[in-house]
Design a protein that fits this description.
alpha/beta; seven-stranded mixed barrel
């Protein structure tokens, strides 16, 4: 690959922060640009999001662990980074976890903030978190390349302008010696090590457990807002831990290849046959489907946005929803699983939701909590909370 590199650099490159950057994809496409955030070299699967806002939520989404995120919107950073002091039921309002989860962040232009709620700039935040960022590269070209060829492994290196220049051969060696995203077991380390209980303010309508493989805080906030006490268990929890003493179970979102999580898939299947209400979101839906005998496949470049339509197959209603998934459940494998299609993505036909015929098990591939994004599908949490309360929740 080294001899056949295709290097792209914007003309008249001038950088702030005293940092330069290099990006190398596994197929030999290379870009030179400016750096921001922290100096360093990171490897990951290169994916893109078409969200125009919500970068604090996206960057802290555990589902982006192991990935290098490209933003299609040309100006990122305008409203800076908000305070963590804004909380709902004790959970930060503008963040989806306790830290930046992406391996690196690539944008066309990293702007300085101008917003009353900003506490620091995007550059300052990423620098403090130790995450490299790249700007002043042609993200339009990069996204078109991914759309044409599918997601690719890549390496990002941000370095001081007056320091040693990382050679393309050196970056190529790092990339080739690094494990591929599909082979990384990411979910078990994305959740808590010990059970953690969150209690809502006000009346408790029911108690639910969660198999936490990297939940977004938005899901927690949505459950707590509906009066559900939530106990998060590690991704390695046994079915009995999730079922004993609880009125319902949540199978969380999270990062990585679901095919590597066979034990978690078996747990999901056992939970689904318990007779208790179950809500599965994103990775949780994939684990549920796998455990019940369906097949999972990888999408060419995934769904990562806050403006994806889904159609409710029961009502015909179309909603705009938030997505972050690179794998999907195969329609043809649902027969014999006890699951039926619930939502469909009309653009490419991806299955975006399933449920059992009795309606006790609900699963969405999209994110009904919308952090960030529209609130069209928040009613999914209302339905789950109603099931929990009617099946043993506390008055």
């Amino acid at each position: 690959m080294h001899g056949g590199l295709r290097v792209y650099t914007l003309p008249g490159l001038r950088c702030r922060h005293g940092l330069r950057a290099r990006v190398l994809l596994e197929d030999g496409v290379a870009l030179e640009g400016c750096g921001f955030g922290a100096a360093g070299t990171r490897v990951g699967e290169v994916v893109f999001t078409t969200a125009m806002t919500g970068y604090p939520e996206s960057l802290t989404d555990p589902s982006y662990r192991g990935q290098i995120l490209v933003a299609t919107h040309p100006l990122i950073g305008n409203y800076g980074v908000p305070s963590r002091r804004r909380r709902v039921h004790g959970i930060p309002l503008d963040y989806e976890s306790d830290r930046v989860q992406v391996e690196a962040f690539i944008v066309a232009e990293a702007t300085e903030p101008s917003h009353h709620a900003s506490e620091e700039s995007l550059h300052e935040w990423l620098e403090r978190e130790g995450v490299p960022g790249v700007y002043r590269v042609d993200t339009r070209f990069l996204v078109e390349h991914i759309r044409e060829h599918g997601v690719l492994m890549g390496v990002v290196s941000v370095y001081p302008e007056d320091g040693d220049l990382p050679g393309w051969g050196e970056l190529e060696g790092i990339l080739k010696s690094s494990p591929r995203y599909d082979d990384l077991l990411l979910a078990p380390s994305a959740g808590p090590r010990e059970p953690v209980t969150h209690t809502p303010e006000g009346r408790v309508r029911g108690r639910v457990s969660m198999l936490d493989c990297g939940v977004k805080y938005g899901i927690l906030r949505s459950l707590l807002e509906r009066g559900l006490e939530v106990t998060r268990y590690p991704c390695t929890a046994e079915p009995s831990q999730l079922l004993d003493g609880y009125d319902g179970v949540v199978l969380s979102s999270g990062p990585g290849n679901p095919a590597l999580l066979r034990d978690q898939a078996r747990t999901a299947a056992e939970v689904a046959s318990s007779g208790k209400p179950v809500l599965a979101v994103c990775l949780g839906m994939q684990l549920l489907a796998l455990g019940l005998g369906a097949e999972i496949y990888k999408l060419p470049y995934g769904h990562r946005s806050v403006n994806k339509p889904v159609v409710d197959l029961e009502t015909g209603r179309c909603m705009i929803t938030t997505h972050n998934h690179g794998y999907a459940v195969d329609w043809d494998g649902l027969e014999g699983t006890g699951l039926k299609p619930w939502f469909k993505q009309p653009d490419d036909g991806t299955l975006e939701g399933v449920k059992t015929r009795d309606g006790l098990v609900l699963a969405t591939q999209f994110h009904p909590e919308a952090g960030p994004g529209p609130w069209d599908a928040k009613w999914v949490f209302d339905r789950f909370a109603g099931l929990v309360e009617s099946r043993g929740g506390r008055a």
